[in-house]
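Chain A, query sequence.
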Amino acid sequence: MKTLEVFSGAGGLAKGLELSGFEHAAFVEFNKHACDSLSENFDPDRVFFGDIKDFDLDALEQIDIVAGGPPCQPFSVGGKHKADQDSRDMFPYAIRAIERLAPKAFVFENVKGLLRQTFTEYFEYIILRLSYPDFPSITNTDWKAHLEELRHIEDFSYTGKKYDVSYKLINAADYGVPQTRERVVIVGTRSDLGMSWTFPAETHSEDRLFWEMYVTGEYWDRHKISRATLPVSDISIKERASRLAEKYGMFEPEALPWKTVRDALLGVPDPKLNHGIIDHVFKDGARTYPGHTGSDFDWPAKTIKAGGHGVPGGENMIRFGDGSIRYLTTFEAKRLQTFPDDFVIKGSWGEAMRQIGNAVPVLLAERIGRQLALEIGRTTQRSRNAVWKTTQPA
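Chain A, predicted structure.
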């Protein structure tokens, strides 16, 4: 099964899909450093460095999945919130890829801000355009007129491709990523294939982590930390632990515990030591400021950010139990985004952090990819069975 990766970034989504069994036909990326990273980790001959507007979709053979992360700046809380008025809005080009290639499915990821009230109509427009990619604007005016036409598509004789599109606000921590990272994931499956898509069930929970920390103490035992050395729990922690004990009684929470920074960095040496890990380099100068105080060592990391609020900034720092802080190394940031340790991120620390912060966590991408591969496999088998039946003698 082959994929086209658009707005590929450093390749977090691509790596996850690769691990779930997909083969990449091409990568399209505008940033030179990200292309350098892609070329280090995937087939460099498949990496297109340039504007997606200039990429020849017709040169591709059968594509099963179109995947990518259209630039989030038009919708990010930290941006200017210009949506369709922002020149960086690349959703129209993502839709063009669906229109031209007719993949079996697509996966797009974007920031939580895409669901803000301000963008309600434009988000509806995106979903409807993805649902009916062959439906052009009748009036050829603006997107709002096109939206009205799409809302009443039953009034038109539409015979083009149709996709069943669903979206979900996902917290990556709920899937075992050691980071509380909320992102919108949009998945579409081609209607004629009859796929039954549902997002993978969450596997990890905050309740279970809190339970193992403050009800049973298993978390500290697992990390060989003496409970006697832990600070006395404040009233709010004690009250929450009591509520959890009442809620679950004799039965512990069924999910696995959220992964913490400590969990993710288990066995990683101090960056100041002579360890031989090329991208695990200590960076001095970490400072806190309001709203940017670092990620607690014994909790999932805050969202690793890619913009001015995170590079440099508190979201790219670790805060240890004694209150000390330091910057994450590139190696540590990769761990928090669940990249393989040998995955190469090219560029300086700031540039590497930008790429890592922009990426889809590999583990999350793999979970979604495996679910898609399963559904596509079932569809393919049904088609084969149907063909076999028609070829049998009466």
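The domain at 2-202+365-387 is CATH 3.40.50.150 (Rossmann fold). Residues 362-391 form the longest helix (30 residues).
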